[in-house]
Amino acid sequence: MIRVATLDDIETIRRICDASFDLNRWSNTSFIQEFSKDHSIIYIYEFEGQAVGYMVIWKLSLTVELVTFAIDKEYQNRGLGKKFLTTIIKENKGYTWFLEVNVCNDVALNLYKYFNFKECGIIKNYYGSNLNAVRMTREAVS
Fold first, then answer.
1. For residues 85, 9, 58 and 80, what is the CA-based torsion angle, rounded to 10 degrees?
2. What's the pLDDT score for residue 18?
3. What residue ranges define each of the domains in the chain, with the CATH number in brackets?
4. Is 23 within 8 Å of 103 (Cβ atoms)?
5. What contacts 37, CB < 8 A, 6 or more positions away?
6. pLDDT in tens, 109-124
7. Dihedral through CA 34, CA 38, CA 40, CA 43, nearest 10?
8. Least packed by Cβ within 10 Å: which of 56, 62, 82, 103?
9. 34: closest CA among 11, 56, 60?
């Protein structure tokens, strides 16, 4: 089940974030700020009654920015990320998508390529000194 997150989900989101990312983990404040932005939507992915993933998107006039997305390490490699992203993309069809991903994150890069995201540039030092990001886009599909 996928649902829109509430402030009650902050600790769950933090747990998944901390377990998923070595660099640039979001703080509680960062997540809390997203709840006050009109263009920001935070989703929770529940599997077998357990919150196992989250996603933050910014839905703007004609674009969606995938800001952050993670599946709990214990639940990775089960196709859950693919199911989660499939659902959110379908809910937002007709939008052009953008995201940034660590150039070294082959799992994420392959997932996004599966969804027809194309590399459109490198952002130097995006995650810190010598830690670059790939900028990716997915054209709007009706």
1. -10
2. 87
3. 2-138 (3.40.630.30)
4. no
5. 58
6. 999 999 999 999 999 9
7. 90
8. 62
9. 56
